[in-house]
Amino acid sequence: MTLGIGVSQFTESWLRQSLDLGLVIALTFMVLLAVRDRRTLWMVRGLIVLMVAAAIAERCQFRLLNFALDKLVIGAALAMSVVFQSEFRRFLEQLGRGNLLPSLSQNKRVGDGADRFSRGEALPTIDRIVDAVKELSQQRIGALMILETSEMMDERDFAVPGVKLDAELSKELIQTIFQNTTLLHDGAVFIRGNRIVAAGVILPLSDRTASRQLGTRHRAAMGITERTNNCVCIVVSEETGSISLAEGGVLDRPLTSSKLKELLELRLAPISERESVRPSFRTFGRKFTVRSLLLVRRILQLPHQK
Predict the structure, then answer these.
(1) Which of 231, 236, 264, 286 shows the smallest number of beta carbons within 10 Å?
(2) Please, are residues 154 and 89 in contact by the beta-carbon 8 Å criterion?
(3) Residue 273 in contact with residue 120, Cβ under 8 Å?
(4) pTM score, whole prediction
């Protein structure tokens, strides 16, 4: 009788601990999915490491080490809540709406209603951008453009926000901004949807060693795309007129105008137009598995594999 009670208590304790661990893993997974910015992801990863180390120290009864790690965890959490206010606000909004897995619902675009545009509006916008880039390339006029792709970008990622324009995007306006006689030609143009939000934007430079053929504009494009996944950058070289597209800190160059248009259509056209509006359960499960594996590789910094 006593043996049966002991086995029952052991089983109950094991199930409770397993459920507790599973809930913690699920919560951590949802937080990491909600994080899009690379710098924020690294800080969340560091906070998780501190929390795991504190839990291990407590289990091993290392009192002094546990005390120090607990204080570090509290300090790191407070620092992150101050530095990344917008990210936490966005996460709490998604939690309140019940959208706990924003990465998996790709047929939604986060932002104001004015920033969303259908495929019928996206394609003319892309055509105007490509036409402007083509003429700038032929005239060998340097240019740098930031195109917002998914969530709204945080302008604190810019070194200098630039001059607010909020103007309708046109080929003529882009060409005018980058003329050497204008005061805004040295900075970048920030494009959201079919509008030019700002010009003369100064971007942080990448710390990675680049080729001598790459100038400041290329390093700036690499720098901003290293910091955030919510944009791509178009660069026109002033010396050679070559066209480049930066994404994820990597430059794709040289590009023809037709290739640039193809890449922009893949990144800017609404995903709901390229995929089925109601994917099957099998498709959803396959996407969830692939994204989970990519997230694990990203956390553990494993080499990318197809």
Answers:
(1) 286
(2) no
(3) no
(4) 0.56
